[in-house]
Design a protein that fits this description.
Chain A is α/β, with parallel strands linked by helices and 364 residues long. Chain A contains twelve helices and 16 strands. Chain A has two domains: 3-213, 3-Layer(aba) Sandwich (Rossmann fold), CATH 3.40.50.300; 221-352, Rossmann fold (3-Layer(aba) Sandwich). Chain B has three domains: 2-169, Rossmann fold, CATH 3.40.50; 186-327, no CATH class; 376-530, Rossmann fold (3-Layer(aba) Sandwich). In chain B, strands 1, 2, 6, 7, 8 and 9 form a six-stranded antiparallel beta sheet that branches. The chains are: A alpha/beta (364), B alpha/beta (532).
Chain lengths: 364, 532
């Protein structure tokens, strides 16, 4: 059965793929699809480390997969006489480009922008040959960071789900920050965190089984519970359970006054985060945007909240999807403590001051 | 496994296509029919190499089909935009091996969805200007400048190949190879190295390197001391000798196979061929799926050839696909007539629907010259040498030349039944006449029995029983005893009726050389008329 494993931040998603690849049987052929180059490299290195022969487990990027296994072999069946030369990473054929011109530039490089649609069209033109070909090459396909797929990608995934290949998708809709193609109008209703609804639809069709893995091995329970509250309870995400056993003298949720932010960051070595460059320009701290810290683990984070995030923190106003995902990624980097820069006292947060006993603990 | 070979514009082949047998293919044909070229083409598309060298390094004007080139130069004079000749060799594969399936796609001339490899030689667009300048030169020869062409080697997924995919094994066994100075020729080295596990190869390599190093540190050390003393005055840095540790000194060139006590290269060529076949057989199971064997009969005595063919048969049974060229009827009969691919230019003929009985019949009569029968386009089947000579005489009297000069081959049956021979000819759709004695059976009965194989171009003529059971009485009947005695140059007391059956061949020879006019029995006359 195909699986959709949705795990929380710190849920060892990548590790679960590595473990399964490492213990697969000798004659099993596995393809692992990562989204970013960094995650592909990490997957490849960790899978090799388990001693699996490179022959049996292959790691590839999503775009490379679309190009090599779906577009290239059968492209002439859709566009007679055309051959694929490669990928046009940031080109745009324009809104009115039609037929082949919409998908391939003059050097026959495929526009990344419409690649999934092209892959889907070629797949349809090939009369299932493209899928049959894949079935002959691989037994199983893992798709990591599946929440980043959207639009026509989902149509391709659905075709894979309907094939004889065993598909395992691993991801976390709470961390849907990147997207393969933000301009793709297809499957608009399942964009980003709403991909959960698409998984539920596929499950209803009997194409896959959703498993939620609400255990985090990174954050403590206080942070985990707080991270859950970022999302509307009606979304139906299972509450996160912490399996972390590490302790630290500075643990919990804090507010830090702007004037003391630098002192806080320095004394704890906290990772400073913000939504984007436009936030907290006036503070001289080494801020990183939420998006780039995906996959990282630190002891403490210090976040400069956006106005909306502040409103959520102070009054409980739910954030919309994208903003909630960003904040969730930021919060869940931390093992021990999460602090927000705010001159205002926030409910359920401990105010941190330099005068106060240096290591205040919550509940201990 | 190769299911189809399609060749365009390569040497002999203008537009060639053949669907090989999954296990064994015996390729026959006249000289220059393209037998070796076909094997060469398969090796090229499978390995990107020819005799161990990359296609691009070996590219030369003679690779292009001569007629293509001639037509191009003629058409170019009229229209310089005429497309330049190109070469394409495609191998269509069938395999469920996942690694072979990676080579699947529709990038082939037939648009088939299957795995495959292709080697193409096309004009390199980087040299468009140079090419145009060359063609515009009024003094240029009508030869294609291959410097401006480029060989590309890809799979059917349109991905360039850089080395032979491990899933596609290839062994080339060519008994005609001239002894190479570098120890072992490329193909044998290929066979040898695929015979070894990677770990074993590494172990040999390490030991080899070590022994070379030891030589440097032991024997050469004292020698180097001596050299150093004398050379200090000549050069700043001391000069010394060391064993070559570069890639050139790899174990492959230093370690050679040995037969008994004799190094491989010193062994007889026939023996070398046997060894290569033996090595190809013992390759690791996952490699060597395609085995190309050139003329296994070369340099081999009968008994050795017999042994070699036994091995080849075993090889064919081990999920390997064999392609064998041969000039030997023995090889052909022995390995199975039904596996033959007869080449003539771009056309091929096969014997795939030949009855099992006939196949095994010729296997047991492996000495029979089947190849002659298969290669002849028009032929006359006669019972024995005397019939052959009489037919030739009659033919000469009628056309003032012998049948050979009209491309008609007269073949003695030598004990092969007319039925088997005619079945073969029918399958090959040959123009054939069979001449048979009635031996006491009514002619109509004999002809009726073989009607399955006869047609407009395939006729059987049998002597009518009223004129005698065999050729000799028939000749006497139509010429008269007196005349016959004269033709044969017999003494008056000799009776042709008793002399002839006892001196069949001698009599036929005398008739062939006789200055007298000879009347031919009606059935022989009919046969001669057949070729009018």
């Amino acid at each position: 059965m195909n699986r959709s494993i949705l795990a929380v931040a710190g849920g060892r998603k990548t590790q679960s793929i590595v473990d399964e690849c490492g213990s697969c049987s000798e004659d099993h052929r596995i393809l692992v699809l990562g989204y970013t180059t960094a995650s592909q490299d990490e997957l490849a290195t960790r899978i090799r480390a388990t001693g699996v022969h490179g022959h049996r487990v292959e790691v590839m990027g999503w775009f490379a997969f679309l190009l090599q296994h779906l577009v290239r072999p059968y492209l002439p069946l859709l566009y007679e006489g055309r051959r694929l030369a490669g990928l046009n990473f940031d080109g745009d054929p324009g809104r009115y480009a039609k037929d082949a011109e919409r998908f391939l530039d003059k050097d026959s490089l495929a526009y990344k922008l419409h690649l999934a649609k092209l892959a889907h069209d070629v797949m349809v033109s090939s009369n299932d040959s493209a899928i049959d070909r894949l079935e002959h090459i691989y037994d199983e396909i893992y798709i990591d960071e599946v929440q980043d797929l959207g639009g026509w990608d989902l149509e391709v995934v659905q075709a894979l789900l309907q094939s004889r290949l065993r598909i395992t998708m691993v991801g976390d809709m709470r961390q849907a920050l990147l997207s393969t193609n933000i301009r793709d109008p297809k499957n608009r209703q399942y964009r980003k965190e709403k991909i959960f609804a698409w998984f539920q639809l596929m499950e209803k069709k009997g194409l896959l089984e959703i498993t939620q893995k609400p255990t985090t091995y990174r954050s403590n329970q206080v942070i985990a519970t707080f991270s859950d509250s970022i999302f509307d309870p009606s979304l139906g995400y299972a509450p996160t359970v912490s399996a972390s056993t590490e302790t630290h003298p500075h643990t919990g949720l804090f507010t830090v006054r702007e004037s003391e932010a630098i002192a806080y960051a320095q004394s704890l070595g906290a990772l400073c985060l913000r939504h984007s460059k436009s936030v907290a320009k006036h503070l001289d701290l080494p801020f990183l945007n939420f998006g780039v810290t995906k996959g990282r683990t630190v002891d403490h984070v210090l976040i400069y909240p956006t106005e909306k995030a502040h409103k959520f923190l102070s009054e409980g106003t739910q954030l919309e999807g994208g903003a909630a995902c960003s904040l969730y990624v930021g919060v869940t980097r931390a093992k021990h403590s999460v602090a927000f820069i705010s001159d205002e006292q926030l409910p359920n947060f401990t105010a941190w001051t330099q005068q106060a006993p240096r290591w205040s603990t919550l509940g201990a | 496994m190769i299911t189809k070979v399609v060749i365009h514009g390569y040497r002999k082949f203008r537009h060639f296509s053949v669907d090989p047998d999954p296990t064994m293919n015996i390729i026959i044909g006249d000289n220059e029919a393209g037998k070796s070229t076909l094997l060469e083409a398969i090796a090229l598309a499978l390995s990107g190499r020819i005799d161990g060298r990359w296609a691009n390094d070996e590219l030369n004007p003679y690779w292009f089909n001569a007629r293509d080139v001639r037509d191009y130069f003629a058409a170019y004079a009229q229209n310089p935009k005429t497309p330049t000749p190109s070469i394409s060799i495609e191998l269509y594969l069938d395999s469920n091996d996942p690694d072979v399936q990676r080579m699947r796609g529709i990038h082939n001339s037939l648009r088939n969805d299957c795995p495959g490899t292709k080697l193409e030689v096309v004009r390199n667009p980087d040299y468009d200007e140079e090419f145009a300048a060359y063609m515009a030169d009024p003094n240029r020869p009508n030869v294609l400048p291959t410097e401006y062409f480029e060989a590309t080697w890809k799979d059917f997924n349109d991905i360039p190949l850089r080395r032979r995919p491990t899933a596609l094994g290839l062994s080339v066994i060519d008994s005609r190879t001239i002894r190479s100075k570098s120890g072992v020729d490329y193909h044998t080295r290929e066979i040898l190295s695929s015979f070894l596990e990677p770990k074993e190869r590494a172990a040999i390599s390490v030991a080899h390197r070590k022994s070379r190093y030891e030589m440097t540190t032991s024997v050469l050390n004292s020698l180097n001391d001596k050299i150093r003393e004398g050379s200090e005055a000549l050069h700043d840095a001391p000069i010394g000798l060391t064993m070559d540790q570069s890639a050139r000194a790899s174990w492959e060139s230093g370690v050679v196979p040995q037969v008994g006590e004799v190094p491989f290269v010193m062994a007889g060529q026939g023996q070398q061929a046997s060894i290569k076949v033996a090595l190809a057989m013992k390759r690791r199971a996952e490699s060597a799926r395609t085995v190309l064997i050139e003329e296994p009969e070369t340099n081999l005595a009968y008994s050795r050839l017999q042994k070699l063919l036994n091995r080849v048969e075993v090889l064919a049974g081990e999920s390997q696909q064999l392609f064998i060229t041969t000039h030997s009827s023995f090889v052909l009969n022995r390995l199975g007539l039904n596996k033959l691919i007869c080449l003539h230019g771009d056309a091929t003929s096969r014997l795939t629907d030949l009855g099992d009985g006939t196949v095994s019949y010729f296997k047991h009569l492996s000495g029979y010259d089947t190849l002659r029968l298969v290669l002849a386009s028009r032929l006359v089947l006669v019972e024995g040498p005397s019939d052959e000579m009489i037919f030739k005489r009659g033919y000469f009297d009628k056309y003032r030349k012998y049948p050979e000069s009209d491309g008609i081959d007269v073949i003695s049956m030598n004990g092969i039944t007319f039925k088997r021979a005619l079945e073969l000819c029918a399958r090959l759709d040959r123009d054939v006449v069979a001449l048979q004695d009635n031996d006491g059976t009514p002619a109509a009965e004999i002809i009726g029995e073989l009607s399955e194989y006869t047609s407009e171009i395939r006729q059987i003529y049998v002597g009518v029983s009223t004129l005698g059971k065999t050729l000799e009485p028939q000749l006497i009947q139509v010429n008269g005893v007196e005349k016959m005695r004269k033709i044969l140059g017999l003494r008056a007391q000799d009776n042709p009726e008793t002399w002839m059956p006892n001196h069949k061949t001698e009599g036929a020879l005398r008739i062939l050389q006789s200055q007298e006019t000879v009347v031919m029995p009606p059935y022989i006359q009919q046969a001669i008329e057949h070729f009018a």
